[in-house]
């Protein structure tokens, strides 16, 4: 049985990535930052079966930048790097850059010391590819593929910080993903690492938040995907519809499948994994139609008018490479939304 190292095992995508490998007869080494996170992961409802079967071992690595992954890397055939900050509350460029860029580069170097490692894959983001600084409503007809890169440089991040630009965190997040990706490929080449390297580029990730076991922490302290979906899907029918900052979405299970498939099929390079376009009115409309029994919980907005993306159009993100080379099939938005709502119900975060 082969072993995969998954960093950020307690994260929204980390748990799904683990399930994708566990279901294919792999063992999982996972890293988390604290003992508290370790206890939480080992008690997750979604992982219980595998913890009981002793197929998961959890290691504590307190920080990404200075972290020592030696123990967690012992005997692993593949590394799936999921740990990277995704929030918009940072104050400086460095706060985004260091964990994303230095964390990834450091892990690649450590993995290169371990002869059993055959593959290194990591979660990047559509943010590293498309121009998220330019409003989507002005990008009708633009089609992004894996050969595109976010058209800014580090200089711009520094300037944004000096100007105290309120869009700083969004720009820094996107740039940290771009530079992390470019540095990852450059490092892999420079040190002559023997493994194959690939990156998965999702857009806004939706789907069940399997890394929660109780409703504690939802929505206030939850991560972006969980918080966003909580507000969009079950926060109450009078809640205003959120403004849509990015219009591409990905089902977390397709992200996880892609992470598994690049490893299983030994594929290198970038792969967009994107299931479609959305805005929050569309999410609400789809949810109300699919789950009428929860109409008191699902924000209503204005279901009778065209939605923002229907009005202006938006960019398109090509999923063709992942479909062709990884066998990824798009998941309908309705399924993603229904499964997310049902998981919130399971967590006791929605009372019918
Ligand atoms: C779930 O994952 C997110 C990040 O993806 C993290 O912020 C959050 O703390 C996790 N929840 C638990 C219970 O560990
Ligand atoms: C994986 O692909 C690379 C080329 O990208 C090749 O050098 C390597 O031998 C392949 N590994 C396996 C296990 O097939």
Automatic annotation (TrEMBL):
Keywords recorded for this protein, A-Z: Oxidoreductase, Signal
Signal peptide residues on this chain, from the entry's feature table: 1-17
InterPro entries: FAR_NAD-bd (IPR013120), NAD(P)-bd_dom_sf (IPR036291), NAD(P)_dehydrat-like (IPR050425)
Residue ranges of every copy of the Thioester reductase (TE) domain listed in the record: 68-228
Record-level Gene Ontology MF annotations: oxidoreductase activity, acting on the CH-OH group of donors, NAD or NADP as acceptor
One Pfam family, short name: NAD_binding_4
Family: Belongs to the NAD(P)-dependent epimerase/dehydratase family. Dihydroflavonol-4-reductase subfamily.
Designated name of the protein: Methylglyoxal reductase (NADPH-dependent) gre2
Species for this entry: Saitozyma podzolica
Gene name of the encoded protein: GRE2_10
């Amino acid at each position: 049985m082969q072993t995969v190292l998954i960093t950020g095992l307690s994260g929204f995508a980390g748990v799904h990535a683990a399930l994708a490998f566990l279901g294919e007869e792999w063992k999982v080494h996972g890293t988390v930052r604290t003992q508290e996170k370790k206890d939480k992961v080992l008690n997750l409802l979604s992982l219980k079966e595998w913890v009981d079967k002793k197929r998961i071992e959890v290691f504590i690595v307190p920080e990404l930048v200075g972290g020592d992954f030696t123990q967690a890397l012992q005997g692993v055939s593949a590394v799936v790097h999921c740990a990277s900050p995704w929030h918009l509350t940072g104050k400086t460029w460095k706060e985004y850059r260091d964990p994303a860029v230095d964390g990834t580069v450091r892990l690649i170097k450590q993995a290169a010391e371990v002869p059993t490692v055959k593959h290194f894959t990591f979660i990047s983001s559509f943010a590293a590819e498309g121009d998220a600084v330019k409003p989507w409503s002005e990008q009708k007809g633009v089609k992004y593929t894996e050969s595109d890169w976010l058209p800014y440089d580090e200089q711009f991040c520094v300037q944004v910080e000096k100007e105290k630009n309120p869009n700083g965190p969004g720009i820094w997040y996107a740039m940290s993903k771009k530079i992390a990706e470019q540095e990852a490929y450059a490092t892999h080449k420079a040190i002559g690492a023997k493994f194959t390297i690939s990156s998965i580029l999702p857009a806004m990730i939706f789907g069940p938040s399997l890394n929660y076991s109780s409703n504690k922490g939802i929505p206030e302290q939850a991560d972006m995907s969980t918080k966003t979906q909580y507000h969009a899907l079950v926060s109450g029918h009078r809640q205003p519809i959120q403004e849509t900052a990015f219009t591409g979405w990905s089902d977390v299970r397709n992200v996880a499948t892609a992470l598994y498939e690049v490893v299983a099929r030994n594929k290198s390079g970038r792969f967009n994994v994107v299931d479609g376009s959305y805005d929050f009115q569309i999410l609400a409309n789809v949810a109300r139609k699919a789950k009428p029994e929860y109409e008191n919980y699902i924000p209503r907005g204005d279901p009778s008018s065209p939605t923002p993306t229907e009005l202006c159009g938006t960019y398109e993100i090509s999923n063709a490479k992942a479909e062709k080379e990884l066998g990824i099939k798009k998941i309908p938005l309705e399924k993603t939304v229904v499964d997310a709502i049902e998981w919130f119900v399971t967590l006791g975060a929605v009372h019918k």
